[in-house]
Amino acid sequence: MYEHNFPHKRFKITLEFLEKHISKDLSILDLGVENPFSKIMKDAGYIIQNTSGLDLDDDVSEIESFNGDVVTAFEIFEHLVSPYTSLKAINCDKAVISVPLKLWFTGAYRNKNDIRDQHYHEFEPWQLDYVLEKAGWRVVDAVKFTNPVKKLGIRPLLRYFTDRYYLVYCEKISS
Description:
This protein has about 180 residues and is α/β, with parallel strands linked by helices.
């Protein structure tokens, strides 16, 4: 197990889940530009490349041309109008995906100053499971978890008890 001082609880849980399912000798395409978690994966010994920042609703060419072993998508699909298109474009047979869960006590995240930094979807677990199945994937393992924030208030308090993320390992269903 890679030891690291994680800035977020979700990074620790996500890395442990990845290590449970994905060998470090497999090549990974991580959807989205390089980010703090893709750097953690590299530091942990994973062989990864990131997509270049193309709008994956409009252009899945980088996904289609990837000839590696695994695709990861950590907090990416909530930004897409249609995650289905990206899921269908994956040519390998393993994927690890996380999405934020829809919270009953607050609306979806929206940044009015940056159109790309907002959530078009926040999911209920069944919704991600459904789009995965429709796109030809089978969920093998899944976990939901909280991610408390160090702020005062009712919503921060509720985040200690309410699951915020849904993380899945899935495999392509053979045709």
